[in-house]
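Minutes, project check-in
Item: structure for the 519-residue chain
Input as provided by the requester:
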Amino acid sequence: MRTYFDKLLNSSQQKKQLPIIYPLLISLFSGAIFSLSLAPYHYWWLAILSPALLYACLSKRTAKQSFFIGLAYGFGLWFVGAFWLYTSIHVYGDTNSILSVLMIAIMALVMGLFTAVQTWVYRRFFPETPLTFAPLWVFFEWSKTWVFTGFPWLFAGYAFTERFLDGYAPLFGIFGVSFVVILLACALVEILRKRIFWIVPSAIVLLGAWGAAQLKFVQPKAEKPLSVSLIQGNIPQDEKWLIEKQTDTLIKYASLSRTEWGRDLIVWPESSIPMFQTDIEPFLDAMNMQATKTGTAWVTGIPYWDLAESQQNNHPMYYNSILATGDEASGLYKKQRLVPFGEYIPLSGMLSWVLPALQNDPSMSGFSRGAIDQKPLQVKGHDLGTAICYEVAYPNLTRRNASQSDFLVTISNDAWFTGTASPHQHLQMVQMRAKENGRWFIRATNTGITAFIDHNGHIVKRAPMDKDAVLRGELPAMQGETLYTRLSDWPVLIFSLLLLVLGWIYRPRKVDVSFKSRR
């Protein structure tokens, strides 16, 4: 095995390259193992090994060959790393197993095109060096936050949440961490190629991570902590939207909350009230009265039917939203980033045969997107920056909502993915958002993982998964801003662009010749 990898790493010195099938298979394998670096497995070193193997496989390959090597890597990455979609498609979508796997394979092929284009661009236009591979990787990770509405999952930097390199998060965000991870991965390959000078930049970025971790951007406000109770109702997804179960759901959440009135804040999860506010006004009035009487703020997830907007647009305007009411509490947040096939079905008329069970789910009837410039919720004199479920995967969206906020709150329903890695990876993203913005995160979920995350991204307390639970915590409000909150992703994007421009200008002429000679 060692002999083979020596040949792979030193392929530039070989008169004849190894057949293309070998790098294709190695790239497929290396992409498939990447998700093991993330939660709940935490084999963080695979986040170094996986891209390092891809980088080695691209050595001296043509742009066309590199496209398919990247496609193999991307397919393995997404087919294995996002296979948790099988549960929502097959179990709750009532789609047969063969078609479910086929749909995931098609998704992996489409998402794999990101890596395929990335590797094609790398070998077609730039010299072989970590200083061009790493910035390209960052740009294509960033593109996953907005191309086709975005699927910002499986980023390299997440493997180092609560680990040494996450010191860069308050400075440059997740993409800054990813840049360093990929740079170290490529540097490892170069060092094995006996280009020893790469030890120096590797040592510099590692020392920089230590230095970054010493910086303090935020501090607690000089006031008493907020007493918070999170309610985890543990309602199975296949029962959540059944009309005959709606009353039972409300009774369960009200019962779990009975002992918590009198605390500063009670938070219920996403869509914990499985009806529009227009259908349940007496219940909402009763809860508001109870919260006001006991001096408690109450925040809950609820589908919201905006009647005024519906009249203006001549069609119903439904929102997945968070409502704040009760004592010293007000505000309504409407979700901005919706999940395709999770909160609306693209081309639903054409695809109704694919996901038949979801057509009767009110959450699939077509939610509208909330406005970008929404105000934070007001709770006990504090501003709560908000994110609903999948939104927390978008770094810049969470950053905007965190700006000028004392706390961050996210509510979710991961019952769609019970028994998979998805809830754990989702929580890991919340940790990174807390670290980036220097704010405590309040996370209430239906089935788990309900948790309190501090401003350094550490899980302070969490509830058990798939059980009824009440989680209590005392949270300090934070003040100050991290560099990332102030400047967003621009520093790392501009730096990456600068490296690519320099790589293009100073690329060796022989690289261009090698491409021409292989056409």
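Outcome recorded: The chain has two domains: 19-216+487-508, 223-480.
No further action items on this chain.
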